[in-house]
Amino acid sequence: MKFIVKILAVAFLLSSPVAQAGELEVEYYPVREDMQLPFSEAVRVGHMLYLSGQLGYDAKTSKLVEGGIAGETRKTLENIKATLEKHGSSMAEVVKCTVFLADINEWAAMNEVYVTYFPTNPPARSALGSSGLALGARTEIECIATVK
Questions:
Q1: How many angstroms separate the CA atoms of 85 and 82, rounded?
Q2: Which pTM value belongs to this model?
Q3: Which listed CATH number (3.40.50.620, 3.30.1330.40, 3.40.50.300, 3.30.420.140) goes with 25-146?
């Protein structure tokens, strides 16, 4: 069965206008012009937008927001929303998120906030605990979205 699915997937890709047209255009969006970071804020490939992981970081204060996992999750998702909109997408276009937690025991508290940002058609999601996140964050979330 898996073999048949793979053959059908390859046949679909080969018949796709994008595949026949050649390579997809890739656009790299830097974090900020004045910051020398070794990653892009987002990368667009065709009609897909891949966001780097976001933290509950407030650029105005140059610190993580207060409020523990709930406050950080809210700010993280607001940062994601702003990044998506900046590059022509929206929260409604998110198809996949990966949630990293400094403490997997905070999953329920993170989820209480997370679900409010995806009231209908929630994206596919993975969540995992880690031994530490950048800047001592409680959560980091990365997303993939469609873009027109």
A1: 5
A2: 0.81
A3: 3.30.1330.40
Closest CA to 108 of 127, 134, 80: 127
Q: In terms of residues, how long is the chain?
A: 148
How far is the C-alpha of 111 from the C-alpha of 104, rounded, in Å? Answer: 11
CA distances from 95 to 33, 64, 76, 100 (A): 28, 26, 17, 17
Averaged pLDDT, 36-64: 91
Angle 138-114-122 from CA coordinates, rounded to 5°: 140
Helix (H, G, I), strand (E, B) or coil at 100: strand
d(CA 16, CA 19): 5
Interacting residues of 44 by C-beta distance below 8 A, sequence separation 6+: 25, 26, 27, 29, 50, 87, 147
The β-bridge partners of 99 are 127, 141
- 52-66 confidence digits (pLDDT tens): 999 999 989 989 999
CB 143 within 8 A of CB 115: no
